[in-house]
Design goal:
Tetrahydropterin Synthase, Chain A, 4-stranded antiparallel beta sheet, 3-stranded antiparallel beta sheet, 52% helix, rod-shaped, Band 7 domain-containing protein, transmembrane, membrane, transmembrane helix
Length: 384
């Protein structure tokens, strides 16, 4: 009997110890950060335990639920919504909310996640139903604001605050997507065409401006070049004239230079007629007189010729040795000029008497009919 009593005592002691351990475990609660525990005492709400160490009454107080106080993110599956232009679009929403009152979240609503989801779907259909497809695609901020206002007002009594509502995606029907892509492609092609036209226009304007400036600069350069060339030629002529004037050349030098230029006049394969100026005869006469030419040479009197213009009447016999072979250069030049003027006057008077108009070519050594006129009879040389 004593052994049985001892065993029974040991069992009672062990049971008390176990009960004490369980009571201590149930009485002492450590609440982590951002978690709230709702405690009931004898089936009624007693208090909400904040983060930290708490002691409960064993077998009297019990923890009804633990509520996470952090902000939570819930993504709902796509929901079909009909727009005002009778198009069905799939809208996927994301909600950011936070429990602010653990007691209301436990006792005011059975499942606040499901309640928020259903409330979001119904509110979204009400908002999208008053918009067409284009407004739905371009008014996401407006939709988010309306959803957040309705959800925050409805969930306030549940101890929940809705921070943000985002439309993750809006998917129109495939046929509408194809039409939208075509419209977008056409709009981009139109903008590209406009930009290309603007670029061509600007390029043409700049090209025209460049050509204008180039033409202006070229014209100015040509004008300056012509002005400088004319000034250079003018200065060269003045310098040559001054050099000739200072050099005081005699008629022989001038006649020699005149003869040197005659071959230049005859150069060229296309020259079929060589026009000899009338001054050529006078120049030869001046040269012959200067160097003592023979009688019969143009510009040298022939002793056997008559006194008159037609050769009638003998001239008095005079010896060439009795006359000076050379004369003053200024007198020779004046004599040559007088001979040229006399030849031009004779040709003019002959044309006037014959009734034919005067042809300037006769002044160059040709008659109007194309024949070469005979050289004029040279006047008698001055007698010393």
């Amino acid at each position: 009997m004593e052994s049985f009593g001892q065993v029974l005592l040991y069992l009672i002691i062990a049971l008390v110890v176990i009960v004490g351990i369980v009571a201590v475990i149930r009485a002492v609660r450590i609440v982590p950060q951002s978690v709230a525990l709702v405690v009931e005492r004898l089936g009624r709400y007693s208090k909400t335990l904040d983060p930290g160490l708490h002691v409960l009454v064993p077998f009297v107080d019990r923890v009804r639920a633990g509520v996470d106080l952090r902000e939570q993110v819930v993504s709902f599956p796509p929901q079909p919504v009909i727009t005002s232009d009778n198009l069905v679009v799939e809208i996927d929403t994301v909600i950011y909310f936070q429990v602010t009152d653990a007691k209301s979240a436990v006792y005011e609503i059975a499942n606040y996640i499901t309640a928020i989801e259903q409330l979001t779907v119904t509110t979204l259909r009400n908002v999208i139903g008053s918009m067409d497809l284009e407004q739905t695609l371009t008014s996401r901020d407006q939709i988010n604001g309306q959803l957040r206002g309705v959800l925050d007002e409805a969930t306030g009594r549940w101890g929940i605050r809705v921070n943000r509502v985002e439309l993750k995606s809006i998917e129109p029907p495939p046929s509408i997507q194809g039409a939208m892509e075509q419209q977008m492609r056409a709009e981009r092609d139109r903008r590209a065409a406009i930009l290309t036209a603007e670029g061509i226009k600007q390029s043409a304007i700049l090209t025209a401006e460049g050509e204008k400036q180039s033409a202006i600069l070229t014209a100015e350069g040509d004008a300056q070049s012509q002005i400088l060339r004319a000034e250079g030629e003018s200065r060269a002529i003045i310098q040559v004239f001054e050099a000739i004037h200072r050099g005081d050349p005699d008629p022989k030098l001038l006649a020699y230079q005149y003869l040197q230029m005659l071959p230049q006049l005859a150069k060229g394969d296309s020259n079929t007629t060589w026009v000899i100026p009338t001054e050529f005869t006078a120049a030869l006469g001046s040269i012959a007189k200067g160097f003592g030419g023979t009688p019969g040479t143009p510009g040298i009197p022939d002793p056997s010729a008559g006194d008159g213009p037609s050769g009638s009447g003998p001239r008095p016999a005079t010896s060439v040795l009795d006359k000076p072979l050379l004369q003053d250069p200024s007198e020779a030049l004046a004599e040559a000029q007088r001979q040229a003027e006399a030849a031009v006057a004779d040709a003019t008077s002959a044309g006037t008497r014959s009734g034919e108009p005067f042809d300037p070519r006769t002044e160059r050594g040709q008659m109007p009919g194309g024949s070469t006129p005979p050289p004029p009879a040279p006047p008698a040389p001055p007698v010393a």
